[in-house]
Amino acid sequence: MHRVSLIGAPTDIGAGARGASMGPEALRVANLGPILASHGVAVADRGNLSGPANPWQAAQAGYRHLPEVVAWNQAVHAAVAAELALDRLPILLGGDHCLAIGSISAVARHCRTLGRKLRVLWLDAHADFNTAELTPSGNLHGMPVACLCGHGPATLTDLGGLNPALPPSALRSIGIRSVDAGEKRFVHAAGLEVFDMRYIDEMGMRHTMTQALAGLDAQTHLHVSFDVDFLDPDIAPGVGTPVRGGPTYREAQLCMEMIADTGRLGSLDVVELNPALDVRNRTAELAVDLIESLFGKSTLMRD
């Protein structure tokens, strides 16, 4: 039986639009905890972390709000590490995607301690592989993958005690359809494995997920970093950076069900839900529906 801990991180400190700070509460309003509990999951809601307010300032030296982003990520790192040490599955309720730096660096440290392999699935419309030199905005929610791979300020790249926290080979980016020009070259040079929407269109979600999950074994910890803008905005309007042409409801369900089938899920981020841009909490309810599938909801009993 899964033992899950919900960790709220109510901040939009790394984003270019305000409102992701309300994401954790929207997920709770959509009954995330009780719905998981209905599947036999032991759920503990740890409440919300606290951190600095969003000063809403211009970028300095290529980064917006770097000290505040560092403070939030330190809090996330500590909270996720504490739950992993208790042999619980942490679900980070964001908040914007910069928080994955703290979450995943804690998971990577945990895996190193236990001698386990780590696979990270990055479900997102964006590659999030920008740097201070490449970013058009300075928003740190566009940089977490780069930071985790060692490209960024030391206050973030060193967060988990080892720089880089991850080799690019540990990552699989899925659903990508918006990459800045300089970032595109950097993704290619780094050798990131990216299953963009063209790949999904041509090969299908089943083949995509088979490839992304290939090589998992009993010694692999699987972390899913689920940016809600992964989904097509026609079904998930409540995000700050929507990009048309994302996975449909059924494609997203298949993605989650195939992850659940591995039995390897060890930690989860749910980020970039922006209730200020949503319609009657529809996007939060969809996110909860998909998370439910990650924990074994299926139409039929399957062997």
UniProtKB/TrEMBL annotation:
<keyword id="KW-0464">Manganese</keyword>
<feature type="binding site">
    <location>
        <position position="128"/>
    </location>
    <ligand>
        <name>Mn(2+) 1</name>
    </ligand>
</feature>
<keyword id="KW-0378">Hydrolase</keyword>
<dbReference type="GO" id="GO:0004053">
    <property type="term" value="F:arginase activity"/>
</dbReference>
<keyword id="KW-0056">Arginine metabolism</keyword>
<dbReference type="InterPro" id="IPR006035">
    <property type="entry name" value="Ureohydrolase"/>
</dbReference>
<feature type="binding site">
    <location>
        <position position="126"/>
    </location>
    <ligand>
        <name>Mn(2+) 2</name>
    </ligand>
</feature>
<dbReference type="GO" id="GO:0000050">
    <property type="term" value="P:urea cycle"/>
</dbReference>
<feature type="binding site">
    <location>
        <position position="229"/>
    </location>
    <ligand>
        <name>Mn(2+) 1</name>
    </ligand>
</feature>
<dbReference type="InterPro" id="IPR023696">
    <property type="entry name" value="Ureohydrolase_dom_sf"/>
</dbReference>
<feature type="binding site">
    <location>
        <position position="227"/>
    </location>
    <ligand>
        <name>Mn(2+) 1</name>
    </ligand>
</feature>
<dbReference type="Pfam" id="PF00491">
    <property type="entry name" value="Arginase"/>
</dbReference>
<dbReference type="InterPro" id="IPR014033">
    <property type="entry name" value="Arginase"/>
</dbReference>
<comment type="similarity">
    <text>Belongs to the arginase family.</text>
</comment>
<feature type="binding site">
    <location>
        <position position="124"/>
    </location>
    <ligand>
        <name>Mn(2+) 2</name>
    </ligand>
</feature>
<dbReference type="GO" id="GO:0005737">
    <property type="term" value="C:cytoplasm"/>
</dbReference>
<protein>
    <recommendedName>
        <fullName>Arginase</fullName>
        <ecNumber>3.5.3.1</ecNumber>
    </recommendedName>
</protein>
<keyword id="KW-0479">Metal-binding</keyword>
<dbReference type="GO" id="GO:0030145">
    <property type="term" value="F:manganese ion binding"/>
</dbReference>
<dbReference type="GO" id="GO:0006525">
    <property type="term" value="P:arginine metabolic process"/>
</dbReference>
<feature type="binding site">
    <location>
        <position position="97"/>
    </location>
    <ligand>
        <name>Mn(2+) 1</name>
    </ligand>
</feature>
<comment type="pathway">
    <text>Nitrogen metabolism; urea cycle; L-ornithine and urea from L-arginine: step 1/1.</text>
</comment>
<dbReference type="InterPro" id="IPR020855">
    <property type="entry name" value="Ureohydrolase_Mn_BS"/>
</dbReference>
